[in-house]
Write a structure and sequence with these properties.
Belongs to the DHHC palmitoyltransferase family. It holds the Pfam family DHHC. The chain crosses the membrane at residues 38-58, 74-92, 192-216, 228-252. Residues 330-376 are annotated as: Disordered. It is built from 11 helices and 12 strands. It is mainly alpha-helical.
């Protein structure tokens, strides 16, 4: 399978600035866009056809026509349907979860937007963006040190947010665009995506572990040739190949979860005001895992949303700030966390670097020193 190749291709994020001038872009015709969107569902259709055939081959050809023992047949069917249900649940949650977008707080105010669109000089445009960004929890920059602004969506990009050229929108904590789910994988569905890979791997393991004895019997002619032989042999090969492909991708994403990185950040370290830092968002293994799966273990194994934060702002390993400060910043700009949401944790714009490896934060005339804790 070519899941890895497609995954690596999908992390390439097209820069809108190359095709956009003052917020204008060349749009394809309506018919072409419809054809493109229809074609994007082909990989999803393929996966569903494979799963549908595997269901028929396992339930009908193996359990009904091949397995002679009723107790074995029932136990296989129960285990198979449990893992199939979890796999399908996580898969469809990944597909149908709408990517989270930046809130209105990250849009330019009307006056600044008009100035930005009239301005011809890039330096002057950056000054306008810097003025607006001072009131936002935004701390990452472009490689050149500029404020990250999306000309397509006309918003200042929150930290870890990127524009997806396929979905044609900015996606919070974007990881990559996955053709196998025809959706962007990001803040709103990254947990579902990891669970989808996990249960897909377990689904393949269950099939291989229960089919192998009948695969060997058909292969060695211990069972007579019949209509079930082809399905049993092919089912084992397909499950084994999918498992090898999926488990490698799963291992990579589990590593990313432990490091608190996205696929984009693994290939290109995020730039902060003091330069690139590939571990800038890493808070230690346990906190990194909790950021994706939540702090309540009872929700970890189910595709229900339990990730921490709101996707607009993130704790970093450099400093720790009172969550209420970040909340007040977003509320002042028209966006506060919804009822029941965890408060975001972010850096303060008044943080100053010092030469001794610490940070000082000016707060109402008082200086608060915050020591940098480097991750081992």
């Amino acid at each position: 399978m070519h899941l890895w190749l497609d995954h690596l291709k999908a992390v390439v994020v097209t820069s809108p600035s190359a095709n956009v001038k003052h917020g204008l872009k060349m749009a394809p015709s309506h018919a072409l866009r419809c054809c493109k969107r229809a074609l994007n569902w082909v990989p999803v259709l393929f996966i569903n056809l494979v799963v549908g055939w595997s269901y028929y081959a396992y339930v009908v050809e193996l359990c009904v026509y091949t397995i002679p023992n009723n107790a074995e047949r029932i136990s296989y069917l129960v285990i198979f349907h449990i893992f199939l249900a979890m796999f399908i649940w996580a898969y469809w949650k990944t597909i149908w979860s709408k990517p989270a977008n930046p809130s209105e707080a990250f849009s330019l105010p009307r006056a600044e937007k008009e100035l930005y669109e009239r301005e011809e000089r890039a330096e002057a445009q950056q000054e306008i963006l810097k003025k607006v960004a001072r009131n936002l929890p935004v701390y990452t920059r472009t490689a050149g040190g500029a404020i990250r602004y999306c000309d397509f969506c006309q918003v200042i990009k929150p930290d870890r947010c990127h524009h997806c050229s396929t979905c044609e929108m900015c996606v919070l904590k974007m990881d990559h665009h996955c053709p196998w789910v025809n959706n962007c994988v990001g803040f709103s569905n990254y947990k579902y995506f990891v669970l989808f890979l996990s249960y897909a791997s377990l689904y393949c393991v269950v099939i291989c572990a229960t089919v192998i004895q009948y695969f060997i019997k058909f292969w060695t002619k211990q069972l007579p040739d019949n209509h079930a032989k082809f399905h049993i042999l092919f089912l084992f090969f397909v499950a084994a190949l999918f498992f090898i492909s999926i488990v490698s991708l799963l291992g990579y994403h589990l590593w990313l979860v432990g490091k608190n990185r996205t696929t984009i950040e693994a290939f290109r370290a995020p730039f902060f005001t003091n330069g690139p830092d590939k571990n800038g968002f890493s808070l230690g293994f346990s906190r990194n895992v909790a950021e994706v799966f939540g702090d309540q273990a009872k929700y970890w194994f189910f595709p229900v949303f339990s990730s921490q934060g709101d996707g607009h702002s993130f704790v970093t390993r450099l400093v720790q700030i009172d969550p209420e400060q970040a909340n007040s910043v977003l509320q002042q700009n028209g966006k506060g966390p919804a009822d029941g949401e965890a408060n975001p944790h972010v850096l303060s714009n008044n943080v100053q670097h010092t030469e001794d490896g610490s940070k000082e934060k000016m707060n109402g005339g008082q200086t608060v020193s915050v020591t940098i804790e480097n991750e081992q």
